[in-house]
Design brief:
With 354 residues, the chain is of the alpha/beta class. The chain has 10 helices and 16 strands. It has 2 domains: 157 residues, VC0802-like; 187 residues, Rossmann fold (3-Layer(aba) Sandwich). Strands 11-12-10-9-13-14-16-15 form an 8-stranded mixed β-sheet, with helices on both faces. The longest helix has 14 residues. The structure holds S-adenosylmethionine (SAM).
Length: 354
């Protein structure tokens, strides 16, 4: 029976298992927090790629499983990887994810040791743009390893935390959520005006600015102007929101205009039908948050992208998703919803303005 390593939401425990059950019957072999090793029927990765999953983030097939001993720890991992059917001619990367145990080696140490031994044997290693991935998941003193061409994977990396940390600018951990979300949705070459609702301390605004957007950042709280450092930032009052819009329209280069106000005080942003992306990370109840988006609808282009975190006060995710969708549906086409690795008790919703 094939084995799989499943990366799920940490918070919505009941929903994640129900979702997995909707894909296949399975037996849990190992589990630690959001990580499962399961035994299930074949073709689960393909099935999961086709399904519109919310709570299961990624699934990797396991090609070999071994018990590890403290004495021969590295050797055990390396010999597990050696049993995989690695194609020497395909440039690959080796990744290790140590879920719960530390035995004097970091995952990075293991990657360097195993990766360099593979390289010494003539396997082509490409860290930046690999065509294949070999991986080991270490959980409860066991090593589960696998190998796949990147196109067959749900995600081209094993450990999202490490993958997205590379892009972290240090303003707020929240910015990781937007990096993860932008990877899920195709924003293509879209650039222009972005609206960031609940922008403080500025992580999401910085991500959008760095991508070349002119950002209207709305929040009564301050942005971290010091950490925004080299970005061009202008602060305006709610009473000058129209002026802020005009300034954005005129600007030919990226800029962050911070309107220091809550959304309820804003009526005319002065950018009719101009914003091509609106992001919303306001830490308010889901219904109110969705209604705030609707109040801005005249400022958005047709097909404008909406990325918003739906905050769930309880763990009844279905309830918050359905009320949010109901409010947005007349004006937005909901594309999908996903719990991303950096989401806590929230779900990221992706939609397009109709
Ligand atoms: C989780 S933080 C946002 C973090 C931000 N995305 C980042 O990357 O730095 C939520 C923010 O929503 C703001 N907020 C809550 N209600 C708001 C409202 N009605 N209008 C504007 N901002 C609001 C809060 O002031 C808070 O700064």
């Amino acid at each position: 029976m094939p084995k799989y390593f499943v990366f799920t939401s940490y918070i919505f425990r009941k929903s994640r298992l129900n979702e997995l059950r909707s894909l296949c019957a399975f037996k849990i072999l190992d589990n630690f927090n959001n990580v499962f090793v399961i035994e299930a029927g074949s073709g689960l990765v393909e099935k999961a790629k086709e399904a519109n999953l919310i709570f299961v983030y990624s699934i990797f097939e396991v090609g070999d499983a071994v018990e590890l001993s403290k004495e021969r720890y590295l050797y055990g991992i390396e010999s597990s990887v050696r049993k995989l059917a690695i194609d020497k001619d395909v440039p690959m990367k080796y990744e290790c994810y140590d879920v719960n145990s530390k035995h004097g080696y970091s995952a990075k140490d293991i990657e360097v040791t195993v990766g360099s031994r593979l390289e010494n044997e003539g396997i082509e290693i490409n860290m930046e743009n690999p065509m294949a991935l070999a991986y080991s998941v270490l959980i409860n003193m066991k090593c589960y390893s696998g190998y796949s061409l990147v196109y067959g994977l749900m995600k081209p990396f094993l450990n999202p935390e490490r993958h997205y940390l590379k892009a972290y600018s240090g303003i707020s951990r929240a910015e990781l959520k937007l990096h993860e979300a932008l990877d899920e949705s195709d924003i293509g070459g879209k650039r222009g005006i972005a609206i960031d609702l609940g922008a403080s301390p500025g992580g999401w605004s910085k991500v959008l600015y760095d991508k070349g957007f002119k950002v209207l950042a709305i929040d009564p709280a301050d942005l971290n102007y010091r950490k925004l450092g080299e970005c061009r930032v202008v602060v305006k009052k709610a009473t000058d929101s129209k002026g802020a819009g005009e300034m954005l329209l005129k600007s030919e280069s990226p800029v962050i205009i911070h309107i220091k106000s809550g959304t309820s005080k804003l009526h005319n942003l002065g950018i009719p039908g101009k914003a091509c992306i609106v992001v919303n990370d306001m830490n308010i109840e889901a219904t109110e948050s969705a209604r705030s988006v609707l109040e801005l609808k005249d400022s958005l282009t047709k097909n404008c992208i909406l990325i918003m975190t739906v905050k769930c006060i309880t763990k009844n995710a279905d309830k918050y998703l359905s009320i949010t969708k109901r409010i947005l549906e007349g004006d937005f086409r909901i594309q999908f919803c996903r719990v991303l690795p950096s989401n806590r008790q929230e779900i990221t919703l992706f939609a397009r303005r109709i």
